[in-house]
UniProtKB/TrEMBL annotation, chains A, B:
Protein name, entry field: Chloride channel 2c
Feature: compositional bias, Basic and acidic residues: 794-822
Bilayer topology annotation: Multi-pass membrane protein
Location in the cell: Membrane
InterPro entries xref list: CBS_dom_sf, Cl-channel_core, Cl_channel_volt-gated, ClC
SUPFAM superfamilies the UniProt entry points to: CBS-domain pair, Clc chloride channel
Molecular function via GO: voltage-gated chloride channel activity
Gene expressing this chain: clcn2c
Keywords: CBS domain, Chloride, Chloride channel, Ion channel, Ion transport, Membrane, Repeat, Transmembrane, Transmembrane helix, Transport
Listed transmembrane segments: 172-191, 203-227, 239-259, 285-307, 328-347, 395-416, 423-445
Keyword Plastid: no
Length: 822, 822
């Protein structure tokens, strides 16, 4: 096929590719949630019929509502049913009930952890931190393999099925990215555009949007969330692609529900039915603001708690040793603890333990008031809501217990090494907190706050929506959770309360803790650049010269291999600077370490050595035969004498042979002993030593040769910064271009280097590394406007003086004109 | 005040500043729409009471609805009332009615155009194109002045009041940015952080979000729209700021409505009441897709039409001359034409001419079906809807006429030189088109499409929402119009149809025409980089070496002033490259043209010339007095002879004196004639000529001196590209960093330069500029992987050879080791 044709076809395919990714994701999602739809269909119909019999009045709207609920029932795939069946069938014996309740999650989580561990340990956790790192330009190839894909999908399915407080948003983002990466790899077989690196990054950015989009059937919120969570700078031209992919994923996700006859038409996933004409009173806004601020603290606490648990387990060496030995013990223990506490006849009865995550969310977003049951509402009670009402215990106590218990359980559960996210658990906790505040408000103002005649009772469900958005926003440091809740509930009437709460929650959480994903990045020590916090003015006052490493490893254009060798032994950076000469320090480019290593090994490598040895051996043999011919005793004596002299000389010369080449010496020794010596009749040890020293001398000669860079790939335009660039701008440039390091130059002269490490340290404020110093706080007093040109002028002056002093033959001789003018 | 205190205070103020900007915007918005609220309040109450009497049943919901509608009535500030009053009071005479209908808009638009023209012509138009350019990093200072602010606010108020099909979104973005810029300027008086350039850009980005946010009370859509419209790469850390600002602006905008007792609580601006349980059928999706595709074509046509009108008026020299003479004639004529055609008793009766833009939108988003009036709906007819129902003409004809007429009217009206946008008119046309499709669908399927027993009639209002989002999205090339309509209507139930339609509309429109704002940028010839279209693979295959200008103007480190002078005469770029020497071409940095000009003027400037002349004059006087003393005749003869000889010599030497300095010669001549000659007793013309030639010689000497760059501000790290960078990557880097030009280097050697102009030409495909050639389409066949290193190696080889041939005294002499090894 001619190349243009392929290009044209692949152009068509890029759009199809996106929707393929989306549908693949949807398939994954359906695989998990719709797997048992078929056999559940019968049950669903029966249940619907039963409910319809019970009340004739609520025909149309109620039916769709029931179907909604049934879908949620079905949503919790096999486990819930099996677990409930086991639990329900064992009515008589509490112990057997407990066993049934506990065994299922433990087995599933253990299997998931084991499977993931064996197949691809990269699949553990959310995947969003890794995607963030990859989209920044850092290559983490093992995170985008087919193995990881399989491990993630199967591991996630099992983990979600266990009923533990785990989410699926992060893993979905990772799965979608895996699809995109595999698709890109597949497409690149056809060549053309798909081989392009930046194209793949664009694909990945769109895939992230798909992941969240098909989780919630939230095309807009999904795109925004994935942007906020994975990008620092977002290309607006990718925006359109993200929306395209996410819309198709959401569309297919919901259309399949219609085709399965679960729904009559496309609707929201967690549809709410709050009243439209008066959604909330203006005077309720302070309560919403309180939810926002409290969620901010709660979100920061959650991130802190999560990190604390991970660090605690890591630090406790005894525990760690034990857990490391039996890798599956930790997941099993955690699952056992959590499922024991939620056991419905036990402690679970006080915290609605028998509800799954989705059921909890549905009941929490309910538009009725729980605390004050006297008011007649148009909708009847849903059976699940009963779980919140304990005969002895107040609903407020149930809610508080639910929030507190779920809070630490979620923080603990997300540390289990299975593919899992934390978004959904946090979302549910937020909804419960919002519901708590809402119920309190409803109890406080039974007739609503509005004073203008008509009674508008307070809607606690609206508070739940606000709380869910605020807490999940605080944990992830995103604002787009607001959009997600609108798309999830299908109602946008609470837009202002939600926005205010989310913004306040973000303000509080961002000033206290990093986001959950950044926290995981730090725990996992991924090469990522932290965000600049807001309100830190010092970033504008710290200059790059304050944080740069001045002791740059460089090679000169006319350096010899010895310099190369020394530089390679000491430095650590992946690339080395190439300068014109050590005096001028004019930066010409950068060379990768691997290139230099191959240069060096070409010069001193085994083939050339062997060649040299053979040459020498042949020459020596010839000489010896010539020498030994005239007179064997005398000749050998003379040769011996000669050798001794040469040895003394060579030893003096080769005294500083580096240790690194000693192994090579021994190899040569053995080579001589085995190959050359048997050929010769009289092998003397001094002669052998002579050979070795000759080889050492040859090596020294080779090292003294000038490096030939001709076959070396040089990056002629590495990124350069000026020494007075502010930390803020440096951060911007590093994140914009996904840089790993940048050279600091002054009028073409290399004066330092800044890498991600220095930048990270400078931003995090813990600047303890050698050679790095941070400006004192008083640096803000410094007048930045005037001094910079002076500094530059001085640097230039030096360069200029050097040029003058070198007095090269130039096209123009200044002294001539000087003479003329006199 | 100590600086840290100021910094701390200003930290507080930055957040306040944002809300100040927002509230200022809100104030502006209220100034326009709420100015006549107070006196209208009474009328509103009466109207509400009257309506309530009319029907007892619809108590709660209807009341808020009525109030909603009244607010829209009030929304059209004084003009509407006055115009309608005039129009209503003159019932008897159609001609007087016509006069009243026409005079008002003409006067207002003429005033607006005149006022803007006189005070600040920069205030004309939308302002979004200018903001896009400014946010890209190009400084357009005159667009952010206080004068522009005043002109924009007053001009916009009048333009909107005229009732012409003009929008306010673009101007609001500009006004908000003006507020932010003025605020920044004010804050920078306190020093500290506010002096920072990038900080101001961040402020502007947030201000753009405020502008749209307070227009529609749409915090989320506003932020997204402003991002899409103004940015190429968006910093996610500004996202949060935008949401913060936009939420406050929307909040204050809507809260003031509550405080004015126009509304009971915070609600959406154009609240819709579509049914929730079954918003649309799955089988209606093709119709929505058709709306999307048609809107895409419509949007492209609108942009094309708008550009065509502008270009037609510019090209027609006769018209142009006439209009230029009388600048206010064009606005007046256009207004006259438009208002004549909408005159209600005339042609306006067939296109709902008596409705204002807001009234049209409210009626179009109505949830009843117009075509089929038999079905009983729960809501009664609103009076405005009657405007669509002509006794003789079908509602379809009215809608078609409305769409067609408003289409060209809007395209024409937005070319009037007043502050105005095009978003709202397009939005209304889109809504009308959607309504048309919806009504057709409703007429086609009177009982709805759903076949499962229950009748769900089609909701044409939902189609109107989809159409509005799709057409406005197509014209502006944005997806976020989808979010805006959700926030505007307060209902999110149509999310999938809206998303699908918007995406399809974007796909069609983007492939046909640039966005309206990009079109205006091209018309106004603002320095902006066009977007890369999608599906153009050639961008990956064109290299920067294909488009760069190879003939770079540079100066060398040891150049003389003559080189400087020559370079300054020929080049055009704002900055010049500084290289080490003409042979090595190693790039050391770049210098601004202004800096070089000041260097040159320092060297050859008036002070130094005058000083030299005075010195010479003094020396000559002394010499002459010495010469004339011994013998006057002989001495004068000898002096004359000497002069003649010197003149000949000097003439030979100074033959190539550039024309540019002739004026200076004449100045010197006059100076001599007037100042020096009267002092001397015997002024001879040959002596004078001698002086001039001596000055010329001095000049030549001065020009031959080596340039001292010590006091010159040099940018030591100008942006460098490699010659094999793809056009795609170059575009990305230019847009990311807001570059104006970049040098192309190869191993430190300057080989070319790429400026915005070359890049723009290369992207737009019209590569005709000298020295620029574009790869043939077959370039995609080229193997890009292997050849690059060869190329680099060759370049390096040259450099290396040069170094060897120069044989400078280095620390290492290669020949030594060569000798040793032999």
């Amino acid at each position: 096929i001619p190349a243009p044709c392929v290009a044209a076809i692949s152009d068509k395919l890029i759009s199809k590719g996106m929707s393929a990714v989306s549908s693949l994701c949807v398939c994954v999602s359906l695989q998990m949630y719709g797997r048992y739809t078929q056999d559940l269909g019968v049950y669903a119909k029966e249940e619907a019929a039963r409910l319809r019999e019970g009340s004739q009045r609520r025909s149309v709207s109620e039916r769709s509502r029931t179907l909604d609920l049934l879908e949620y029932d079905k949503g919790r795939c096999a486990k819930c049913r099996t677990q409930k069946w086991m639990y329900g069938g064992l009515d008589s014996n509490v112990f057997l009930q407990y066993l049934a309740w506990v065994t299922y999650p433990v087995v599933l989580i253990t299997f998931s952890a084991g499977f993931t561990q064996i197949l691809a340990p990269q699949a553990v956790g959310s995947g969003i931190p890794e995607m963030k790192t990859i989209l920044r330009g850092v290559v983490l190839k093992e995170y985008l393999t087919f193995k990881t894909f399989v491990a993630k999908v199967i591991g996630l399915t099992c983990a979600l099925g266990s009923g533990m407080p785990l989410g699926k948003e992060g893993p979905f983002v990772h799965i979608a990215s895996l699809c995109a990466a595999l698709l890109s790899k597949f497409m690149s077989l056809f060549g053309g555009i798909y081989e392009n690196e930046s194209r793949n990054i664009e694909m990945l950015a769109a895939a992230c949007a798909v992941g969240v989009g098909c989780c919630f059937a939230a095309p807009i919120g999904g795109v925004l969330f994935s942007i906020e969570v994975t990008s620092t700078f977002f290309a607006v031209r990718n925006y359109w692609r993200g929306f395209f992919a996410a819309t198709f994923s959401a569309f297919i996700f919901r259309v399949l529900a219609v085709w399965n006859r679960d729904e009559e038409t496309i609707t929201a996933l967690f549809k709410t039915r709050f009243r439209l004409d008066f959604p909330f009173d203006l005077q309720e806004l302070p309560a919403f603001a309180v939810i926002g601020i409290a969620s901010g603290f709660g979100g920061a606490l959650f991130v802190y708690l999560n990190r604390l648990i991970v660090q605690f387990i890591r630090k406790q060496k005894a525990i760690n040793k034990f857990l490391m030995k039996k890798r599956l013990l930790y997941p099993a223990l955690v699952t056992l603890l959590v499922s024991t506490l939620t056991f419905p006849p036990g402690f679970g009865q006080f915290m609605a333990g028998r509800l799954t995550q989705k059921e909890s969310l549905v009941t929490l977003l309910d538009n009725r008031t729980w605390a004050k049951q006297g008011i007649a509402e148009e909708f009847d009670y849903i059976s699940h809501s009963q779980a919140w009402k304990h005969p002895q215990v107040n609903v407020f106590v149930t809610l508080v217990l639910f929030i507190v218990m779920k809070f630490w359980m979620s923080a603990l559960a997300t540390t289990i090494p299975v593919p899992c996210g934390a978004f959904m658990p946090v979302f549910v906790i937020g909804a419960a907190f919002g519901r708590l505040v809402g119920e309190s408000m409803a109890a406080w103002f039974p007739d609503g706050i509005h004073t203008d005649g008509t009674i508008y009772p307070i809607v606690p469900g609206g508070y739940a929506v606000v709380g869910a958005a605020a807490l999940s926003g605080a944990v992830t440091h995103t604002v787009s959770t607001a959009v997600i809740v609108f798309e999830l509930t299908g109602q946008i009437s609470h837009i202002l309360p939600v926005m205010i709460a989310v913004i306040l929650a973000n303000a509080v959480a961002q000033s206290l803790q990093p986001s959950l994903y950044d926290s995981i990045i730090r725990i996992k020590k991924l090469p990522y650049l932290p965000e600049l916090g807001w309100g830190h003015h010092e970033y504008y006052n710290i200059r790059v010269e304050d944080i740069m490493v001045r002791d740059v490893r460089y090679i000169t254009l006319n350096c010899c291999y010895r310099d190369l060798h020394d530089v390679l032994l000491t430095g650590h950076l992946k690339t080395l600077a190439l300068v014109e000469s050590a005096e001028s320090m004019i930066l010409l480019g950068s060379i990768e370490r691997a290139q230099l290593q191959s240069l060096l090994s070409q010069q001193l490598g085994r083939p050339r050595r062997l060649e040299y040895i053979r040459e020498r051996a042949a020459a020596e043999k010839k000489r010896l035969s010539v020498v030994s011919n005239p007179g064997s005793e005398d000749g050998s004596q003379r040769a011996n004498h000669e050798v001794r002299f040469q040895v003394r000389e060579a030893t003096a010369r080769g005294a500083h042979i580096s240790r690194a080449r000693f192994s090579w010496f021994f190899f040569c020794w053995q080579f001589f002993c085995s190959v050359i010596c048997p050929l010769q009749s009289s092998p003397s040890s001094s002669l052998l030593l002579f050979y070795f020293l000759q080889i050492a001398e040859w090596e020294e000669q080779q090292l003294d040769e000038q490096v030939n860079f001709n076959n070396c790939k040089i990056d002629p335009a590495p990124f350069q910064l000026v020494e007075r660039t502010s930390l803020h701008k440096t951060h911007t440039i590093f994140s914009l271009l996904g840089l790993d390091h940048a050279y600091v130059t002054s009028i073409g002269r290399l004066i330092g280097v800044v890498s991600l490490k220095e930048l990270r340290k400078a931003i995090e404020g813990s600047v303890t590394v050698k050679g790095v110093k941070v400006r004192p706080p008083l640096a803000s007093f410094r007048d930045s406007g005037t001094s910079s040109s002076e500094n530059e002028a001085t640097e230039l002056h030096k360069l200029w003086d050097r040029h003058k002093s070198m007095s090269l033959p130039r096209e123009h001789v200044p002294s001539d004109s000087d003479e003329k003018s006199q």
